[in-house]
Amino acid sequence: MSNRTKEIVGFAMKAISNDLLQEIVQHEETVSKVSTNEVTQREMIRIMSLFRKQGFKGNYLSFQHVADEGAAYFVVMGDENNGNQGLFKANLLTGEVAFQYMLDEDHVVSSK
User: Measured between alpha carbons, how far is 20 from 16 in angstroms, rounded to an integer?
Assistant: First the structure.
């Protein structure tokens, strides 16, 4: 193989490697975004503990990360007695739980 051919092959390999590396980085960023939006069981337990410490009782129906707020979560809770559902915002760093609003046919929580 001539030096010119080796040079061309080397350049082509670098270009392919850079494209592949860029594709891998984009994939990892996508996976990271998806995985950071999922609420882990450990986070759910910490959230439930926070609610219980503040005297809340009910069924925990869903948990969702609040976009761009780190340790903040939206939690949908249902009343054991009458089935009403409320949306709460809980922050594990500050220990705050704040009622947002009651859920009904006009107020629902998106899963996205």
Answer: 6
Mean of the per-residue pLDDT values of the chain = 78
* Chain position carrying tokens 């009910």: 58
Query: What's the CA gap between 15 and 82, in Å, rounded?
Result: 63
pLDDT in tens, 100-112: 989 877 656 655 5
Q: 79: which residues sit within 8 A by CB, 6+ positions away?
A: 58, 85, 86
Which tokens hold the place of 66? 């609040």
* Nearest alpha-carbon partner for 84 in 104, 99, 64: 104
Q: pTM above 0.70?
A: no
Alpha-helical segments (H) within 1-112:
3-37, 41-53
Euclidean distance between CA atoms 101 and 27, whole angstroms: 37
Contact status, residue 82 vs residue 76, Cβ threshold 8 Å = no
DSSP 8-state code for residue 30? H
**Tokens at residue 67, please?**
């976009």
Q: Give the residue among 79, 75, 84, 86 at the shortest CA–CA distance from 47.
A: 75
